[in-house]
Amino acid sequence: MSIQLISSDMPEMVALSDRILVMHEFAIRFEYHNDRRYEKASRAIMSVIHAGKPKVEMA
Fold first, then answer.
1. Is residue 57 one of the residues assigned to a domain?
2. What is the dihedral of CA 13, 14, 18, 20, to 10 degrees?
3. How many domains, in total, are found in the chain?
């Protein structure tokens, strides 16, 4: 059985999820097996999110 939780609230995701998937353009880019340690989970997930963002040059 599974439940899909969609949230932008990182503490909520870490508290409630066994696995966290990061998606971009309809594809799974990263899977994190959650051990409920907020700092570790946050660093891993945010590093993937920021690595996927293109650099924007200011004119």
1. no
2. 60
3. 1
| pTM: predicted TM-score of the whole model, two decimal places | 0.72
In a domain, 5, yes or no: no
Residue at 40 is within a domain: yes
pLDDT tens digits, 3-14: 888 888 999 999
**What is the tens place of the pLDDT at every residue in 28-59?**
889 999 999 999 999 999 998 888 665 555 55
User: What contacts 35, CB < 8 A, 6 or more positions away?
Assistant: 41
**Strand locations in the chain (E):** 19-24, 27-33
